[in-house]
User: Which sequence fits this backbone?
């Protein structure tokens, strides 16, 4: 007997269009809570540039590559199971260090595109439920290695939109669950990578607007 596939069912009345104003209100409400840990963590996050010489880049690249698995993915340490979140961190790092040529893009792309389930959502590793956060981790990794066209974009978009809260705004991990700022970021950024024209283009390596990176002259490597 084969194992039952873990997935979710998207209800016919689930949101099917982007509730942009609702999401803006939701994020603005978080910004007004000065003591909220989310506000503190976001405000303390900065992009450090020009400091690459403070670490041994060659040794760091060597370690990251030692975490590459037979399936093309990456674990958190050598021999650990491949996971989409870790793959994003490693592909982003290899982009910033000019080492994307070290990847087996086709093998990794195949593992990543297999994360898409019949609902259209993406999971982080086999036998797990889909989650909006992987609309970023998986999709951004595919964009970095030039294989984003290997998934069904229309089905993924439908899944992401179904995870919106029509009353409060924001995105949840799955349809019907509680929304939070992190999944809202991943949902909006994922829709950007899917080409939603209502959202600014987001860079897949740094999860920042492309126009901001262009202004500061920072363009991480991507594979074609």
Assistant:
């Amino acid at each position: 007997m084969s194992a039952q596939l873990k997935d979710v069912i998207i209800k016919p009345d689930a949101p099917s269009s982007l509730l942009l104003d609702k999401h803006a209100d939701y994020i603005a409400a978080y910004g007004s809570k000065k003591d909220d840990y989310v506000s503190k963590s976001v405000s303390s996050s900065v992009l450090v540039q020009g400091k690459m010489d403070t670490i041994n880049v060659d040794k760091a690249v060597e370690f990251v590559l030692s975490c590459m698995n037979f399936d093309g993915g990456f674990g958190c340490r050598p021999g650990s199971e491949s996971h989409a979140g870790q793959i994003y961190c490693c592909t982003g790092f290899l982009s910033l260090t000019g080492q994307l040529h070290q990847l087996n893009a086709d093998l990794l792309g195949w593992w990543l595109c297999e994360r898409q389930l019949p609902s259209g959502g993406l999971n982080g590793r086999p036998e797990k439920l889909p989650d909006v956060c992987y609309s970023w981790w998986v999709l951004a990794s595919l964009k970095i290695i030039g294989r984003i066209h290997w998934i069904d974009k229309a089905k993924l978009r439908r899944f992401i939109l179904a995870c919106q809260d029509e009353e409060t705004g924001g995105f949840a991990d799955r349809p019907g669950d509680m929304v939070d700022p992190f999944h809202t970021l991943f949902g909006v950024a994922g829709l950007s990578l899917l080409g939603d024209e209502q959202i600014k283009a987001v860079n897949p390596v740094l999860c920042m607007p492309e126009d901001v990176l262009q202004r500061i002259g920072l363009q991480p490597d991507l594979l074609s």
Residues 18 and 161 are 6 Å apart (CA to CA). The chain is about 40% helix and 0% strand. The radius of gyration is 18 Å. Residues 34-49 have pLDDT under 50 and may be disordered.
